[in-house]
Automatic annotation (TrEMBL):
Source organism: Rhizophlyctis rosea
Keywords carried by this UniProt record: Methyltransferase, S-adenosyl-L-methionine, Transferase
Stated name of the protein: Methyltransferase domain-containing protein
Gene3D superfamilies in the record: Vaccinia Virus protein VP39
Biological process according to GO: methylation
InterPro entries assigned to the protein according to its UniProt record, in alphabetical order: Methyltransf_25, SAM-dependent_MTases_sf, UbiE/COQ5_MeTrFase_CS
Methyltransferase domain: residues covered: 11-65
Phylogenetic placement of the source organism: Eukaryota, Fungi, Fungi incertae sedis, Chytridiomycota, Chytridiomycota incertae sedis
CDD domains linked: AdoMet_MTases (cd02440)
Sample GO molecular function, one term: methyltransferase activity
Keyword presence, S-adenosyl-L-methionine: yes
Length: 204
């Protein structure tokens, strides 16, 4: 498990497991969880697999419990970037392997089509990497986003260097420049969150 996870603040009722979501069934009894959250899997799952996985997640949620899915939808970039277009590069490869690059738009449909789920709702929130407001919470969100982005792009060295999209000796400088430009120019992303309840809540 990646040491990025701050284990010192891990709540007592949280455990981590390494597993493969494409190897079903999930290793949990029916109705194990009050709430299941799954997010940012768009590059990892074949488009035809989403209904099967959602059915399996529904199985492990308790009656009356909730499941919530979140994916990134529309992204607005302010033109060319100093960093190789990693997202475009990854998407190009992934679409040819059968991912749904519009999965954020389709989450609601998938939940509505799933027998046993009710109260399906979609909430779209916009993340701006360089907000117009400069109050403390906007600055804090931008800093958190910068840290997250630095982590994500630092891990992308091999997929960029191997096919020659970036020279190894240029990599560190590009990461720094890219995080800097992302925080100083306005990028916008839609974060699409869809949630639903399983069946009817039973009185205990
Ligand atoms: C973009 S990251 C999102 C990580 C985390 N959900 C978050 O929101 O910070 C995608 C994650 O999906 C994981 N992943 C991809 N395919 C998977 C699979 N078949 N089974 C389990 N995890 C998978 C990858 O290892 C990676 O950690």
């Amino acid at each position: 498990m990646s040491p990025v996870q701050p284990s010192a603040i891990k709540p007592k009722n949280v455990d981590f497991m390494v597993g493969d979501l494409t190897k079903l069934p999930l290793p949990f009894e029916d109705g194990t969880f009050d709430y299941v959250h799954m997010r940012l899997l768009n590059l990892g799952l074949h488009k035809d697999f989403w209904p099967t996985l959602i059915s399996e997640i529904t199985r492990v949620v308790k009656p009356g419990g909730h499941l919530e899915l979140m994916e990134i939808g529309r992204a607005v970039m302010p033109g060319p970037t100093k960093f190789p277009n990693l997202i475009g590069f990854a998407l190009q490869g992934a679409v040819s392997r059968g991912i749904d690059s519009d999965i954020a738009k389709h989450l609601k449909y998938h939940l509505e089509s799933q027998p046993g789920l009710t109260n399906v709702q979609e909430v779209v929130r916009q993340l701006q990497t360089c907000p117009d407001r400069s109050d403390a919470s906007a600055v804090r969100i931008a800093k958190l986003y910068g840290d997250d982005l630095r982590c994500a792009v630092t891990g992308s060295k091999a997929p960029l260097v191997a096919p020659g999209l970036c020279k190894e000796e240029d990599f560190e400088g590009l990461v720094k420049a890219h995080v800097g430009e992302t925080l100083s120019t306005k990028h916008e992303f839609d974060w699409v969150r869809c949630f639903a309840m399983k069946g009817e809540r039973k009185e205990e």
